[in-house]
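Crash report, auto-generated. Payload:
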Amino acid sequence: MAHKRSLSTVQAALRTLAYLAEHPEGVEVKEVARLLGKSLSTAYALLNSLVEEGFAVKGGRGYRLGSAKPVPPEPAPLEEALEELYLRTRERCYLVLLTPEGVRLKTRGRQGQPHPLGETFPPEWHALALGKVLLAFGAFPLPPLTPKTPYTLTDPLALEEELKRVRASGLAVEMEEYALGISGLAVPLLDAEGRLLGALGVKVPARRFPFAFGRLARALSEIAQIPPHLKAEDPPPPPPPSEARVEVRPVLPPKTLAQKANLQDYQEAYAASLKDPEAFWGGFAREFLWEKPWRAVADPEGRRWFLGGTTNAALNALDRHLPEKAQQVALLALDGEGHLEKWTYKELWEASRRLAGLLKGLGVQKGDRVALYLPTGAEAALALLALARLGAVHVALPVGLGPEALRERLIQTGAKLLIAADGHYRRGRLIPLRPVVEAALKGLGIPVLWHTRGTTEFLERALEGKALEAEPLPAHHPLFLLHTSGSTGRPKGVVHGHGGYMVGVAWALRYLFDLKPGEVFHTTADLFWVVGHSFGLYAPLFLGGTSLLVEDTPDHPSPAAFYERLARLGVDVLLTSPTVLRALRRHGETRPTALRLVGSVGEALAPEVWRWARERLAWPLDNWWQTELGAPALATPLTLPAKPGFVGVPLPGVEARVVDPRGQILPPGEKGHLVLVRAGPAQMVDLLGGKDPWQGGLYWTGDLAVMDEEGYFRILGRTDEVIKVGEARLGTAEVEAAALTHPQVAEAAAIGIPGEEGEEIAVFVVPRKEVPEELKPLLAEKLKGHLLRYLGPVRPPKIFFAESLPRTRSGKILRRLLKARLLGLDPGDTSGMEVEDVPGETA
Amino acid sequence: MSLEKLLKTEERLWAPESLRQQANLRDFAAEYRRSLEDPEGFWGTWARRFYWEKPFAKVYEWNLPEHRWFLGGTTNAVYNALERNVERGLRHKVALLYLSEDGQEQKLTYGELLDRVRRLATGLKALGVGKGDRVVIYMPLTLEGVLAMLATAYLGAIHSVVYAGLGVSALRERILDAQAKLLIAGDVGFRRGKGVDLRSIAEEALRDLPLKVVWFQRAYKAELPEGHYDFEELLWSHPPEARAEMVEAEHPLFILYTSGSTGKPKGVVHVHGGYMVGTTYHLRTFFDAKDEDLFWATSDIGWIVGHSYIVYAPLLEGITSVLREGAPDHPDPGAFWQVVERYRVNVMFTAPTAVRMFMKYGPEWPKKHDLSSLRLIAVAGEPLNPEALRWAYQHLADGGRRGFVADNWWQTELGGPTLGTPLVLPAKPGFAGVALPGVEAEVVDEEGRPVPPGQGGLLVLKRPFPHMMRTVWGNRERYLQYWREVPGGVYAAGDVASQDEEGYFSVLGRADDVLNVAGHRIGTADVESALVSHPAVAEAAVIGIPDPLKGEAIKAFVVLRAGHAPSEELKESLIQHVRRELGPIATPQEVVFLDKLPKTRSGKILRRLLKAKELGLDPGDLSTLEE
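Recovered output after restart:
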C-alpha cells in the first residue's frame, strides 16, 4: 500500500522551497502563508516539517533555504500520512509505529511540529482507539483491564466484542473511554501483505465528536486506504453457545463489614425464624412497648401477627426513646428551598402529640382514614406520627398526582380529612398544588388542613393542640393505607397494621440494612411511598436512629450536590433505587462519602450497576419486596457472598419458591413464577380492591424469577411482561441487565412485540452520552451482538434509542406504555406516571 | 444593715420531694465529708470518667499558693467534649441549640460540632496558631463564638474571650496583656433588635498592632486587608483534618480577664485538666443536669459562667446547651419563658439582675407560658436579695411544687459554684448556701481569725479545688496576693460574708473597690482611668450605689480641668466616652462635678467617704483623711 503525500501538500512544499531560494535574506511565516493562500498555522507547520527534513533552516529573520542539498530524504510514508491526516482534519492526530525498538507514538497538532509522545502506552491503552486497533490487528497480549473513566470497557467479553467489530469495520471508536470529554477514532496501517505497521488516530473534544465523526472517519479511511465501512454489512457474528454465557461470580463482602454485621449468622436466624417464630419474632418484639402482650406471635399460616397484643407505632417511634434520646436528632429534613431542619426526638414527640390533639379536635377518630397530599418533609412526618398516635389510618397520596386521580383515591378511601400542602419543590421550582387539590375536592365536602409553604402556620397550629397520649391499639389495627405504584394497572389499596409492621421493618433496618446506634439513614424514596413509610420514617424511629428526609430529587441541583449532602450530613446507610443509581452512574463522576452500605430496591439491580455502586459508592445491598410486604423479603445479607444480578435469599420469616403456573415447584435454574409460602410479620393486614395475591396458600408476587443451586433468587421481570422468543422465555430485567453491561448504555427497557414468527425482543436504550445519528446504526449493531452473547441463541433483538424512559413516580419503568406507543395501543391508566417524562424518540 | 434579722430567718424554701428523690446527689452531707476527707479518691474518681491519653500519676500536689492537679496526665478538654462524646454514640445528639434574638434557631450536633471545630482548627493552624499561643476572641454570643473557643483550645492554644460589650481600651489592654497572636472578632452583635457595631471598636483597639485578625462578618462581607481573614471562609475552606493536641493537665485552657481594685484587669488562668473535672462535677451534682436535659445558661461566652456552663461543662457531659443572643425582655418581657416553653428547658442558670427584671415586669409574664419542664433555676453573679428569691420560688418554680431556685456564689477565679444551695437542702432567703463539695470556706477577720456565726467578715477558702485558677497571666505577684491578703495561707475572695449556725453563707458584697453591676465585676479604677482620659477631666472617683435592678449602679465624681465648666452636654459626653472605652456595662448612671475629691494623706481617693455620704451612712474611721 503506497502512502503518498497528496499532491497539494507536495506542491505547497515545492512552491515554498522555490520561494525560499528566491529570498536568501529569509522569509517570514506570514509571507509563506500569503504565498500559499493558507492559514498561518498551516504555513508554520509546513515550514517546520521542511526544517525537520533539512530543506530549510530557521534563522535570524525567518526561514531560509537549508544548506543541505535538497535531495529527497528517505521516504517516511507513515509520518507523511500523519501530516496528511493533520492537514485534512486540523485536529490532534496520532501515529503509532511498530518499530523493532517497540511501540513509538508521534503526535501532530495545531501547535507546530510533531514530537514523540513517548515510547509506551498508558496502562489502560485498551481504552484508546489506537490501542483497540493494535489489539484487533496485531498480536498483542491483552493488557489488564483497569478502568480509566466510567466508559472504559473492563469486561473481557465486551472488549472482545468490540475488537471483533473493529476488525470487521477497520475503524476503532473511543467515546470518552480513556479521558472524560475526549473521544477519538483510529484506523490500522497495513502493508501490502496485510501486516500491521502501525495505526493512525485522531481525537476531538467529545462535545464536537457527533459533528466531526463523519468527516474524521472519511479522512482516516481514505488516508489509510481503507474503504469507508460505517455499516457492518455482514450480520453480527453468530452468538456463542450458551455455555459461554457470562457466569456469575460471587463477590465476598468486605471483611470489616461482615465481621461487624448486626446479623452474624444468617442461616441460623433463618432456620430459627421458621422453626420457632414464637421465640424468634417474639424475642425481638419484646424490645418494643406493648400495652398488652400478645397471646400468640402468629397464626398457623403466618398471616396475622401478635394476636391479642396492643401497642402503638407512634408510641414506639417516639415516646419509647425519650428517656435516653430526647435531645438526639430524629429527623434531618431538607426542604426544597435548601433549609435544613433538625428535629430531636423530644421536639418530634411534643409537636406530634399536639398535632394529634388538634386533629382530634377536628373530628378525627380512631379508625378514620385521613388522606395526605404532602411532600417529603417534617410536616408530613409529623402528620403521619400524629395520625398513628390517634389510631387513625393515614393515606399518603403521591404529590404530583393529577386532580382526577387524587379525587378517585379520596373517594375510594373515604377520607375524613385531607392534609395538603399548597406547593412542593421539584428541581428547585415551587409547583403549586392548591389548584389540583381544589379541583379534586369539588363537591366532596372533605375538609382540608393546609400546610402553607414558606410559613410556619402549620406548625404553629399544631402546637396549639392539646397534647394527646398514644392510643393503645390491637396489633392488626390499620396504621396506613398505600396505593401500589401502578406500574401494572389500576392502583390497589394496601393496608398495614401497627404491630407486625413495626416489628418487621425494625428488624429489617437493624439486621438487613445493618443500622448501628448513632448512624444516619437516608432513603431517596419519597415519604409517600412504602419505602418512605418503612425506611424514611418508621423503622429509623423505631430503632432510635436518625433519618434524613429530602424533598427535592436526589440529584438536584447536581449529582455533586447529592454526594456533598451525604458527606456533610454523615449518611451511613443509603437506600435508593436502581433508577437513581443508573442516573448517578450515567453522570460518571463521584465524590467521596462516608457511606457504608447502599441498598437498592424497586427494580432488579443489573450487575453492571451493582459493580459500579460497589466501586464508587459502598457495598450494595440489593433487596426485593413489594408494597404488600412492607419490608424486604429477598436480599443478600451482609455476611453472605453477593451474586450481582441475583437479589439474594429469603430473609427470616419468608419462604420463597419458583413454581409453574399451577403452583408446582420448579427445579433450580428454571424460570417461573416467584411465590411466597410465608411472608413475615410486616405483611399487609388488608387489601382494598384488586385480587388477593394469596391464592391456594401461596402469595403470588407476579414476578418471574429463577433460583440457583445455592438458593439465590434472580428476578427477571414481571410475569405478565415475559417475552417469548422462539422457545425461550425471557424476563424484561434479564434483557435489560444484559444491555446495561454495554458501556454505552445508561438505561434500557425491554418489551416483547409481535413479530413474524412469534414475539421479538425490542430494547429501548438511553445512551450514556448523546450518540451521533451516523453512529446509531453502528451502535445498534454493537448492541445486538452484545445482547446475543448474554441471551443465547434467540432472534436478534430490535434496538430503539430514546432520550429517556417513561417511569412511574416511584421510579419504575413503565414498559406497558412503551409497548403501547410502539404498537399504537391504548396505554391504559397512566395516573401514576412521572410528569416530566417525554415520550421516547426512536431510531 | 439588718444582719441579725437576716441571720435569724426561719424561712425554709424546699425543693419538691420528687425532685429531691431524683436528684443526682441525694446525700449531700456524706458527699461533702468525703470530698474533704479523701480529695484524692473524690476528684480522682470523677477525673477518670474522662479520656486521658496518659493517665495521671497523682491527683494533686499542693504547695499553697501553688496547687497542681492530675499530675503526669495528658488530655484535652475539647477532645473530651467532642470526640469522646461522638465515639460514645452522641454523634447525632444536639450539642448546641442557638437562638437568635428574633427566634431563629440553629442546632449543631456533636458530630457537626466536631467537624467544624476540626475545620476551624485546621484554618487557625494555617494562620500559625499553635500550642500555647494566645487567641483573643471578641465575638457576640453565637455558635461561631463557641467554635472559635473550642478550635483554639483544640490546638492547645489559649483563648481569651473579651465580652463583646467591652469597649476599645478594655479590648486593647487585654490583647496587649495576653500578647495575643490572633484576634477573632465579630463585626456586629444584636441586642433589642438593633445591631451593635463591634467592627469599629475592634479596629480601633487594634490600631498599629501587628495582629492577624479573623472576622466573623454577619452584616456584610468587607474587603479585607492583608493579614485579615473571613471566619466562614477560613472555616469552610479547610478540611476537618486537625486533631486534638494532647496537653499536660496543667496546660492553660483559657485566660479570662476580670476587674480588680487596682488599675489593670487580671488575666485569670484556667487549665485543661482540673477545669474539666471540676466544672462537670458541679454540673451534675449542683445543677443536677441529666443526660437528656436541655440546659440553658443565660450568660454570655464573655463571662466565666458562659465558659463553664454554656460551653465546657455541658459539652463535656454530652448535654444539650442552649445559647441565646439578645436581651431577656426583648421582643417582650416573656421572651425567656417563650424559649422555656417552646424548647422544654429543664435547667436554667441566670443572674439575680435578670430575676429582678422579671419581678419588675410581674408574674403575668411567666404565667402566660407552660414552664412545666423547668426543674431548676440556678442564680449567681451577685447576692440574690430575699425578695427576688421568694419571687422566683413562687412564680418560676411554682412555689416549690414543681421546681427549685438554687442560689450560688463563685467567681471568675473559681471556675464553678463554690457556695450554693443544693437541691436537697432548703433555700434560705438572703443566703447563697453552704460550701459545696471540695470547698472549705470560712468567714474570718482581717487577721485570719474565724468570726463567730452571725458576724460579718472576710470570705476565705482554706483549700484549693481542681477548677480553681492557677495564676494571673503575666503577673505572678498578683496571683500570690489572693493568698496573702489574709494571714493563714488562705484564698481571700474579696467579698464580705457571714455564716450562720447551719453553715449557710450570706455574701454581702465586695470588700474592695470593685463594683458589681448586673453581675459583672467592674473595677472602680477602670472607670476612673477612662474618665481621666477625657480631655476635660482632671480627677475622677467612682462608687457603686444600690440599684433595684442591677444590684449596683455606677456613680462618678469628676473634677474638671481648668477651662472646662460643668454642663449637661459635658456630662453626656463623659458618659459616652466611658461607654466607648469600656463598653455599655460600665456606663456611669450619674456624673457629679466636684471641686475636689476627698483623699487620704497619702493621696488615695477615699471612695468610702463618698459612698457614705451618698448613702447617708457612717463614714467610719476618717483619721487618714487629708482635710
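Post-recovery validation: Chain B touches chain A at residues 89-94, 107, 109, 111, 291-294, 319-320, 343-344 (CB under 8 Å).
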